[in-house]
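Might I ask for a little of your time on a matter of protein folding? Here, with my thanks, is the record as I have it:
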Amino acid sequence: MSMYHGLEVRVPFCDYRIAEYLYGVPWEFKDYQNHEKGLLRQAMVGYLPEEVLWRKKSPYPKTYDPRYLELVSAELQKVLADPNAPIFQLVRREALEELLTAEYAWPWYGQLMKVPQTIAYMLQINFWLEAYKIVLI
């Protein structure tokens, strides 16, 4: 999106070497002081204002519009109607059906992902599996 508008965006935390390193870091460090990205937050003490450093994550996409839930639910129903949907290689049909009626009090750890975002995530996985013709063994 940025290059389309003539902007060059640097995303330093997407460097594969950082990602590889962090896969080996023990969970206790990542969850430092019971905060998601605790290791990164601690490393930035003194560099970022406290209100930025310790604020809750707000992921994209995040919408509270009830219409968003209606739209992603309708798309999930289409997936559920297809017995060969590739998502069923990874996720039980019953678990996806439950998302259509569930009222969870949880957000995923650190993500604030509620039901609409979880449904959208499952739809994205299904799309990816289908688009790239992924078959899991």
The longest helix spans residues 115-131. Residues 41 and 52 are 9 Å apart (CA to CA). DSSP finds seven helices and no strands in the chain.
